[in-house]
Design goal:
It is a single chain. This protein is an all-alpha fold. The chain has one domain: MFS general substrate transporter like domains (Growth Hormone, Chain: A), CATH 1.20.1250.20. It is built from 19 helices and no strands. Helix 2 runs antiparallel to helix 3, helix 6 packs antiparallel against helix 11 and helix 9 crosses helix 15.
């Protein structure tokens, strides 16, 4: 059984690493595809907002689907759809016949895919992780994602600067296609049906209601999610909207943006390595406190620091973000029943990113109205103020780790049943 579980975990790990490698090219390619086409930060905001809205609009359905049907099937369909859409978009970019609405549609498709793939992937991890190694498995997968962000964005920036954004998006499409054989093999090992989904006879909307009940019954959970809604609005708008504009105006454009994303990825890697072994006694206050450091690169840009300082700040921001993610994901897996983990994750993501489209849609207008530096300071405030407030709440500081034993060790792994 251990060997089977390890093999299934390696397949999921490899499929994730392959697709993530290509996905690091996507944000650089999309950002400069929009900026090269219209030169408008507002248009970039609308494009990013379309992705956020599509994902938020379908997250609960995606979470319920991942708890009801085989999660590996959900991942397969999502990867296939992304590969097809991105090939078509990249072809249009390379032929020079792209329109802004097509880029908006591409972004929305990516968001829709994430609404289904992210909850499914989150639910698969405890099913295939080796017994007793849940936090380590989560940290390893996140570490693989982070490693991809060290080299990928820098190469993407150089590629976009040399050839345009079309090839960057095509590489992402190829990475999705390359992950499909690994996911198909994992599906054959898990079996056509996952037992816990068959036993659940509730409809989709009944499952969504059950997920809400579980979510709302834990004040510490929804308190941090509300905090994250403001933090993510500032962080995402600053990182994905204002940072491309800042690098274009203050530094070397696409190549500078790529290096900043890579520095963030290096911070992710360091944070992931620490997360492999460090288990704080009270991980929730630690996870909340680390969110404060996510605003470091935006603070450096707002202070108009030299580029090397911004790079160092991006490294710090990536480290803090990854430490938050490792401890938060592990808390969810340990505190919540596995049968509803995808739905709970969907509510977590929906609430955490609820205000993100607002930041994207109005970020361009705010930038035009008050200028780049004041807009960056606004994003820094959205990160710092809610974090300091929530950290002072007793309901957050009182949550402790329920134990070092992972929840899946008390029952046989599903991949061994199939």
């Amino acid at each position: 059984m251990a060997a089977t579980g390890s093999t299934n975990y390696r397949l999921l790990y490899a499929a994730n690493a392959v697709s993530r490698t290509g996905s690091t090219f996507f944000p650089v390619g999309l950002a400069f595809a929009v900026l090269d086409l219209t030169g408008s930060a507002a248009d970039l905001g609308y494009t990013l907002g379309a992705s956020a809205l599509a994902e938020l609009g379908f997250l609960l359905v995606g979470g319920a689907a991942a708890d009801r049907w085989p999660r590996i099937r959900v991942l397969l369909i999502s990867a296939l759809c992304c590969a097809v859409i991105e090939v078509l978009t990249a072809t249009a970019l390379l032929l020079g016949s792209i329109h802004i609405w097509e880029l908006v549609a591409l972004s929305a498709t990516a968001g829709l895919s994430g609404a289904f793939s992210r909850p499914a992937a989150q639910g698969l991890i405890p099913m295939v992780a080796p017994a007793g190694r849940l936090q380590r498995s989560i940290a390893q997968i996140r570490l693989a994602n982070s490693t991809c962000f060290i080299v990928g964005p820098s190469l993407a920036g150089l590629l976009v600067a040399a050839t345009g954004p079309g090839w960057a998006i095509l590489i992402d499409a190829v990475s999705y296609a390359a992950a499909l054989p690994l996911l198909l093999r994992l599906r054959s090992r898990l079996g056509p049906v996952e037992p816990e989904e068959v036993e659940d006879s509730a409809g989709i909307f009944g499952q969504i209601r059950e997920g809400w009940t579980e979510f709302w019954s834990r004040p510490w959970l929804w308190t941090v999610v509300i905090q994250s809604a403001f933090v993510n609005m500032g962080d995402y708008a600053g990182f994905f909207l204002l940072m491309p504009v800042a690098t274009r105006e203050l530094y070397a454009g696409a190549s500078s943006l790529g290096f900043l994303i890579s520095a963030t990825g290096a911070g992710f890697v360091i944070g992931g390595l620490v997360g492999l072994s460090w288990k704080p006694r009270r991980p929730l206050p630690v996870a909340v406190a680390y969110l404060l450091g996510c605003g470091a690169p935006l603070l450096a840009l707002a202070l108009e620091q030299p580029f090397w300082v911004v790079l160092l700040a991006a490294l710090v921001g990536g480290f803090c973000s990854e430490q938050h993610g490792v401890h938060w994901d592990t808390l969810l897996q340990r505190h919540l029943p596995q049968r509803i983990i995808s739905r709970a994750y969907a509510y977590d993501q929906l609430g955490s990113e609820l205000f993100t489209p607002i930041g994207y849609f109005f970020g361009g207008a705010i930038l035009a109205a008050i200028g780049l530096v004041p807009a960056l300071w606004t994003c820094v405030g959205l990160i710092a103020v809610p974090t300091a407030l929530v950290f002072s709440f007793a309901v957050v500081r009182g949550v402790s780790d329920p134990g070092q034993e992972d929840p899946m060790t008390e029952e046989p792994a599903l991949d061994s049943v199939a």
